[in-house]
## 1
Amino acid sequence: MATGRQILRNAPRPPEWRAERGRYQVTPDLQPLSPTQLVEWVAGVAHEIRNPLSAIGNCIEIIDKQLDLQGDSKELVAIALSECERLDRVLSNLLSFARCSEPLLQPVNVHELMERVLTTLRYDTRFPPTMNVVRDFRAPLQQVLWIDRDQISQVLWNLLINAIQAVPRDNAIKVTTCLEEDDWFCLSVQDKGVGMSPEVIQKVWQPFFTTKTSGTGLGLAMVQQMVRKHGGHVRLRSEEGQGTTVTICLPLRDNASIP
């Protein structure tokens, strides 16, 4: 009786296969996607997923209101809605990462931008009421940078969410700004959480790498991508059991302070 390997070896090869160095390879009919085509493909897939996902979430909410569920049933509905929201965030992050365009530069008071993000953060369900944000602004409070407001807001948001998730609910995170060598505006987000091992630090910038059970693995990858598009760079310092500090540095060229 012929084995599975013998059957595969003796099976007729389709005409699009060709022999090379004694081995059969498939001749691809499709050309590799260009970066632009890949972005369009990702956007299309995300759009196709998001529409039914939104419908599912809406249906669950309607069922919850009409049936007046209690106990375990109520909890299951809450879990379902929470997972829908999580998947929507995954899609949003995926689209932001794939579509990351060139920054639309405009003069922005960076400290005012930071305060707006911090205020918004306090209304996010992931921000514990007992959490404290320590501000250590050493750069001029009226410092203006030529930046993309939306992209840098997203950068700061991602760093703050990471820091919040790394520390106990009654702990604090620290936000620091300073000028370095008259060439860079640097913003640091520091936590005293669990920290990272050297092995994790090596992988932390890779898209989709995460140590969280509910993470997308795109937060820091997006931070690095957006900061680099601004001509800046990102530094990370972390030690297990001691915490993590992530610093973004943006160029000061063509920047000034508000008079």
## 2
Amino acid sequence: MSEGPPSSKKNEPNRTLPSTEGGQAVEPNRAPLRLVASNEGRPETPLPTGSLDLLFRSYSGYVAAIALRLLGRDDEVDDVVQDVFLGAYKGIAQLRDAAAVKGWLATVTVRIARRKLRMRKVKSFLRLDDDPQYENIPAPGATAEQRVLLKRVYAILDELPVNERLAWTLRHVEREQLEDVARLCDCSLATAKRRIFAAQAAIDAVFSDPGDQGT
């Protein structure tokens, strides 16, 4: 089923990956470790018109980058990108500028990523899921230690409820404003804050565990 267009435009934020610092609590509205490449300074892509193929070529990289960071693995990214454009094409045709298109694509990407993550939970429960690999998460300039930390954060995210994981990732990896997290997650602002806080508490608990040998 096709998705309809968003009600408002969205500015793309700096996109970075945070983590905890030495087990200290990180509040939902800040994140100290920045690893994921930012799109700051890149020119906006003009709104393509015409075929789905042109739209795909213009924005598939943008959708794939969001999907990879939401999912934490690259084995499902191609499927998500295809589903996003098939599901959102008619809605996008009603939009008139690049900022609105990118915001709507992000909305549809989150919805499809949620379905993928929920299916992953089922596969994991049935022991049908392969061992996760996190080596392909973009982290330009990261040290070897930071890359190990990055992998551990995504391993923790895999254990969280899907809605908490998405809210935390949108806030701290995608660097969305809290209001945009709520919109993308289709929930109230209070619910978005609660999910982010719960996810952060779970991450903090792992990094503050004295028996944890990965720190």
## 3
Amino acid sequence: MDSVEEFEAALKPIIVAAGRDAIAQCWMVKVAANRPPWTPSGIELSAGDRISVFSAGRASIVREPNVWVGSHFSLWMRIGAEGNIFRAPGHSHTFTVGAGGQLYLSSLFPGDWADRHGTLATNPRAYERVAGTLAVLVVRWRIDPRAGLDQLARDGTTGAAIVRAEADRLKNPVTTPAGWHYLWSIGDGGIFDSGQSAAPEPIIRCRMHDDAAILQRPVHLKFDSAVKLRWSWKIDALPSARSEDAVASHNYLSVAVEFDNGQDLTYLWSAAMSPESSFRCRAVFAAPFRDGTGARPIWSCDRGWNGSEKGSAKNAMYGTTTAGRSEPRLWLSSRYG
């Protein structure tokens, strides 16, 4: 939901019911999208508190109103001034507080993080060209959150539908594949899920809309010309029907190798570009991962399962230096806006 006003109206009955039965307390907090980097909510959380967060709204560029992101991607949270930053895997999130402290809220777009505690890497003046408001409902539960969500989701109102989406997400959790982790600066978008094929063999599913994520895995080996990268993939739908080398259509699904010299080699599935072509990614937030410097070789898109293999000798033709680097990381990355 992008409308802050509709969001507030839909969830007003929940706010009115605060202090009764399931809900111990709840708060509606507004976050100005042009205020970097953190907004103190005034909400003090204690260790063991069971919390659900719901959000709405968008952040946009003043002179480019069609360039915007929703609250599900722009909203970040931190508990305490030195706490670790995190985001919700969608428009809602339920968690148990570890270390207590004040809840801080941030609208990150169009910025980036410098560290895991929420230091801004972007010049704060970049936010002078941002407009918009995020609305955040914070609920402290008196009972188990699953039971509380089910209790509030019983009727057919818009507010109940918002709550029901979080209840359904908790009942059908997405499981991050073993040995993999989300890139901390983009956060856990909840879009990569472990599973099994009909074989059965372990697989990683990617399901997303209007979001972005990078899933990483460290690889400990001597990286030389004998190393091969081999994978099988099945594409049901690509995020873009246009050429992915343009900022406006830079939406893609890829497998990549990141080297410890800051470069990466990303194999990109494309519906429009010629196989074996490549481009240098220099998009900053449009990517929206970071200031990309890696090459993007292009893969054709076919239906059904396909086996693919690339050798490290290909790196030279795409301009990625790997000499002396021995511990690359694998990426699974996806962006759809």
